[in-house]
Amino acid sequence: MALLERTFFSLTSKLNFKGMRHILIPDTPTIVIPVRGAKQKYHPDSFIGFRVEPRENHNRQYVSHPLIYKDADPAPRFMDARVRAILKDLTGCDHSKVFRHRALLSISAPEIVFFTDEQLKIAQNDAKIKADKLLSMPPVVKVRAEEVQDISFDPALQGIMPNFKIVFTDISLGIPDNKRIIVVRENSGKLRHANGAERQRMNEIYNPRKGRKHYVSELFTAKCLPDVLARGQYEFVLDRACLQFEPDEPEYQSVVAYVYEALDKKQHYDSLLSTRHYGPMLFFLVWHKCLNNFLEHHLMAGRLDVASQVVKLYCLLHQKSDVAKAMTDFRDPMHVVQTFVSLECMDTSARVQLALKQCKELLRSQQQVEQNVAAALGQSS
Amino acid sequence: MPVLATGGAPIYNSLKAIRLMRHGCANRPFYHIVIMGSRRSNKGTYPVIEQLGTYDPLTNVHGEKLVSVNLDRISYWMAQDKVKIAVGVKQLLGLMGFLHIHPQSYITAWRVRAIAKREALSKQQAEDQEASMG
Amino acid sequence: MYLITRFLPLPRLISSQTLVLSFTREGASCRQLHCQPSQGRNLFPQSGLICPPLRPLLAPTSHPQISITRHGTNFFNKLPAQKLWKGVISVSKHGAQKGRGRGAGRKLAKDLNRGQVIGVGAVNMVWPGLNAPIIRGQEVVQQQMLGPDPDRHRKLLEIRDKMGRVRFRKVNPLERGWTGTKMGGKKIGPPDPVGNDTFEGFESVVLEYKVVSHMRGDGGKFRRVSVLSVTGDGMGLAGFALARAPAPNTALSMSKNRAGQRLIKIPLYNNHTILHDFHSQSGITEVFVRKMPEGHGLVCHRALKAACEIIGIKDLHVYIKGPKNVREVVKAFFLGLMKQKSYQQLAEEKGLHVVELRKEQFNYPKVLASPVHAPLRTLSDIPPNENLDFSTYVMGDRVMLKPVEEPSSILPLLPKKGRQPEGRETFLRKYKERRNFRRALIDLITEYGDERSFLAKQYPEAWKNYGRRNWNNDSDDDE
Fold first, then answer.
1. pTM (two decimals)
2. Which region is the signal sequence (chain B) (predicted)?
3. Is C325 in contact with C285 (CB distance < 8 Å)?
């Protein structure tokens, strides 16, 4: 404090202020009524500004969800080659869905060409590479820390800006958004770095990207999002979220978790098949151990292979769990799923056990049918 | 006459200033932080040598006043010859932390606090009087 | 019952020159014409009356013609209406041959009875038995003079003014062709059923409706109507035909029926456009037809547009080189449509895969056809100067000149050819003020439901559309 005083007086030594004292004024929003008739030269807003009324906060809030990656970091697990292989395998690659016409892309005249076999194969290979690119999954990372660094504190500036703060952005060319200097000077005289929401807004204002908004889009609010999801437009919301946010933002993770939960409740997993969101969705369900609905859905349909892959994923993500330890033979899908169900689902979900039973029945009947067909065709089984 | 590759007014050998230039419209000011000729007569007329930022004097819905500054280019121009910085811009850069805080900012802050204190005092006196009368 | 002749002749009634007066009340008898009205005495009190005088009942101006006298006749009452009008309208034989008195502006006989009702005249009176019931309830209706109707004469004149000329009947806007009065582009319904063919789902359109004539050997012009029409079911079946007949309706039906007998099956791509670009010719009229994607619409000659709607093509571009004679154009177009090759045919011809690449589908190679009978060629099999470009191959090695398009979204940034750079500078300087307006407007309407700022509720006097509109129609509670 003494140091600050000395610096202050040295800077203003040429100016003659007597009896100047620091008066701490609480940082409350108050209406400052200008002196009538006077020149209002030293009015708080007049240094370069206008009369200011207290603004209401913009009340729109993003939807919130508790299941965000805030404790353990999922990134190393997500980047694991085995995990990625399983996720890619389960996502699938249906060309008619991956390459379908997206609604906002304008239609141009189709080009028809003559291709030899080699040219066709090259084109199809290119398509596969493109498909891989289109199906590249948005990263699953830990939520970024909300701590905001203070830079300096100058109490002599108190009161200079009642009811508002000033946000400074560095618009030098060639700096990426996450490295940009964005600082905020507050009424208390504190200079700090901008927090996540402020950063996002400033970056969008001074470096706008198509599809991104500098305000809270109504789509992601509790008012709108349930309706959209009720219509089954999961992919649309997830695409918009990827466009709007960064993967380490808490808002993104909340929105995305909300969508996954809604999807899980209705068991509409197939709507995300052959899209880039299937992998992160599955990762989310496995990480947070919400597999009951998923297993029930796939076992009822008789998709034992999918169920066993998911259990393998579980073992990779929760390596210290009982299931991982109890698993002996990863090659037998029935054994894998049985172990999981017996250890994890006994007390939590009776439906999964029922589904497993149904699955067994289904497989048995399928086998029976195959045997009968083979016999009918005269082939020995 | 030399001209910046990005376009703008020719750079004469006269005194230049980094200053605020008012844009916007009636009842809605908006300032550009520019480097241009330092004379008062230059202010309303074009063209500027280079725009170095913006300043919006009206608070937005979140209670912020937005200032953008091209620090890279301001540093360049400050290092050049015959360039002065106007008081308003100096204050903004001071508050930003790029330069020292300008004395004018301290003065304004002190004066605001003084007014507030005076008003609080007179209000207190009025209340006391009422209490004593009633 | 009273039967009164009017002063102005009523063609139907003028033959009845007698005046008959009678009362239907009991005890009343017909008053004979020879009866002289008693002078001065009012023999017509309210109750009980036998012979009322004639004069007080009739308006002074309308005197019945009760005797044929010298000063009472004129040609108006000598001749029937038909004969009178004949004097006005008739055309001599020679004149008829020349075509006089025929056509749109010719005079017609005016029926002067129109707008008039028996019993209602210039004298606005209640005549029981004629324009009013005799007994109404328990009361006997009396003859009564009502107030004069000032508009009656005016209305009659209005009616008569409208009559007398051939007038064109207005066509419903939805049924119009290319023009309000002409037949070109007008739909004329499906062809008439022939045996078992009912032509269900068919529609015909007139492409050309001409009144043509030639000189006949036995004198005079022989006028006919020539109609070119196209008929089709909107799913690829269509035909066109020309027919000539003296009567317009005959010509129309002949044309569409003939077209119905000459149907061809046109192969379409996804039921909205042709299979591939083609070039076709009829005489010296050349037609360059290009396949277009969905939503492009029919960009072509109006006759071809009408024909395409009938065929079922929704997206097309056609450029016509040479004379734009409708018959030739339609012929060339149909010829080209018929000559289209299917993808399988093209694959067989070339011995290569026919693959479709769509930009909005990331150029995913979609194989439309592969050669089945012909051997699949490799690059080494193909001679170096062979044309492998699909678009020129289907056009018969013709290349259509494409105009250079400047995309409008980057127009402000590119200098237009020939413009001075100072002009561009000025434009940019002025444009930057409104550069973001559109985007900002959309954002504001999305956010607030109106073109306003977040301060508008606090300062409604500055809110331009205060209370006037809210696009989103929602409450601003969350703001």
1. 0.70
2. none
3. yes
